[in-house]
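Example protein
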Amino acid sequence: MFGKLYNPIFTSHKKTIQMKQTLNITQQELITLLSTIEKPTFTNIVMETKVRMNKTNNPYYDKVVKRSKCNYSLGVNYENRVNNNEKKEGLEGNFETEKPSGKTHISKCLLVSDKDESIHYVMLERFDEIKPTNEYICEGNQIEKQMFENYMTKVYESTKQEQERKVMVITPKIENIKEISLNGNHYIID
């Protein structure tokens, strides 16, 4: 079903991990694969996203891409996770989720745009304890974040969750995912 077959060995923290296989797949095949996720599943994802910046007098505007690699959880029940964290902190545990702005769930972890159903997103839970590795690329060359940091738009934390340990989800576009490791297989998205 999925493209080319490889069999790499990854070395991590002095452990050798044998991946079942590495496969090249299309975005549509990734959507099909993600639609099968029914329960929380850990994954490692490499994604590339344009860095959001202010436009005025910005020589870096629309030129910088962030390439990040991190472990996430797929297929989480966001409402249950928030309520469990609230209860652990002695709060009510009566959080109710709202429909994601501009998006609709079509499976546990897949969403589509309300305006254009051909645009897919994946819902990922990230954890503060697991820091992503990021690199920034400007016109094909690596660049330090300090060079353009002052032009970046501000990111605000959600105020909808009362508990101290927040459940942090992101919903990147499927097209931003370049690699994903899932159930022992490593997929490279063409």
About this structure: The longest strand covers residues 64-74. DSSP finds two helices and 15 strands in the chain. Helices lie at 27-34, 78-88.
